[in-house]
Amino acid sequence: MASKKEKSGSSVGVSVEAGSYRVTRPDSADAVIDLIRQHEVQIVDLKFTDLPGLWQHFSITLPEVHDGLFEAGIGFDGSSIRGFQEIHESDMLLRPDPSTAFVDPMCDTPTLSVICDVVDPVLRQPYSRDPRYIAKKAENYLRQTGIATTCYFGPELEFFIFDSIRFGQDQHSGYYYVESAEGDWTTGRDEGAYGGGNLGYKPRYKEGYFPTPPHDTLQDIRSDIALTLQQVGVQVEVHHHEVATAGQNEIDMRFATLTRMADNVMIYKYICKNMARRYGKVATFMPKPLFADNASGMHCHQSLWRDNENLFYDAQGWALTSELCRWYIGGLLQHAPALMAFCAPTTNSYKRLVPGYEAPVNLAMSQRNRSAAARIPMYSDSPNARRVEFRCPDPSANAYLAFAAMMMAGLDGIENKMDPGEPLDRNIYDLPPEEARKVRQVPGSLDASLAALEMDHAFLRKGDVFTDDLIDTWLAYKRAREVDSIRLRPHPWEFYLYFDV
């Protein structure tokens, strides 16, 4: 099933290279209005991100689109948004960012989507809990330090596409059930009810990387997603099936600046989910939906630049990295327990971050070694390619908050010349126990990561990037809505373990 391939763009604005497309993003209210006329748009959809990291939206008709919309904004009820306002302070404003506008390829009605910033209508200032505002403040702080002018991020978001998912829990029962024709567990299933006999070719557990079709049944879906992303100005470099059975995928976007990449992550998730739905399937960025196979991560490649110079490169340095790069890594490793509260922010994240299994829980740096938390990719010796890959985050993260937090940790490492320790270029999983005990690890639960954030957040407060209000709200929300709600409910496996005690 093919997606619509209408190229979006305007004759005025900022050009963005996207593979074979040259997408021109508008840079003003007039340019947005020109884009609306050019594509005969009928609806404008205003999108913004709640505190946990899910896109919210509402739509307006064309008579409501004028210069005042982009200057003064439009009102909405902030008390109905997770992590935002209380009922007595509910009035909030959305201010559309013209540079984010794109013709929405997932809507049948001609629709222009615009990402918005959230504004406090009383103070007439950006809202302190708006995740996008925090990302922008982080970029401003970077420039103020004089260390660099730009931070680039290149996240690798993995995700699953299932045929269907069922789940539920009440006071006396609980279950989940995943359906996937690719699942290794379906080799013996009579699939007559699914439109034919069992066709075999199921990727075995941990063997989904990189068999061709017919093992890989999702090639066309991923291609449609990739081309649709390029259509809206998000450049894609590669896509492929990932390690796990049952439809694990990865589509890699070309790196971009911190806030722009966080915008791109939101577009990526939106298009993946909606394209899967067009095919009658369902996409999920939940880190660990399957037992006994690989989970989904979001390895984050990052580097600091001053204008056109990559500050992480040194031809004489270890792994071609500069001292500044290694200090940045030192900051990531030092603050990693607190970072996980934003980078691995769900209870399910810690089903992935289990010592001795596939996820990188070990707080060490290495070149090439995927068992270390901080890795220096060695595919190229080009100065422009030198970067650090921080491998602990997962795609359940709010990208605005996670990217900002990682960069702030790295900057703190530079400012305090934090030593990341000696490179660990061996397989950490095979270290003798006495050596393994010396390697620090990320926390083993969301509760522990939140406690680490509570104890260690001064580095986030620099430049007023993360406010105390934001951090306190995040801690309270996560503890009440997620940690406690999981702790209060019996797990199905506990019946197996303990019913006969």
Automatic annotation (TrEMBL):
Signal sequence region: none
Keywords from the UniProt entry: ATP-binding, Cytoplasm, Ligase, Magnesium, Metal-binding, Nucleotide-binding, Phosphoprotein
Pfam families: Gln-synt_C (PF00120), Gln-synt_N (PF03951)
The enzyme's E.C. designation: 6.3.1.2
Subunit structure: Oligomer of 12 subunits arranged in the form of two hexagons.
Matches recorded under PANTHER family: GLUTAMINE SYNTHETASE (PTHR43407), LENGSIN (PTHR43407:SF1)
One Gene Ontology MF term: metal ion binding
NCBIfam families per record: GlnA (TIGR00653)
Name of the protein: Glutamine synthetase
GO CC entries: cytoplasm; membrane
InterPro entries in the cross-refs: Gln_synt_N, Gln_synt_N_sf, Gln_synth/guanido_kin_cat_dom, Gln_synth_cat_dom, Gln_synth_gly_rich_site, Gln_synth_I, Gln_synth_I_adenylation_site, Gln_synth_N_conserv_site
PROSITE patterns: GLNA_1, GLNA_ADENYLATION, GLNA_ATP, GS_BETA_GRASP, GS_CATALYTIC
Annotated ATP binding sites: 237, 301-303, 370
Domain GS beta-grasp residues, every copy: 39-123
Annotated cofactor note: Binds 2 Mg(2+) ions per subunit.
Subcellular location: Cytoplasm
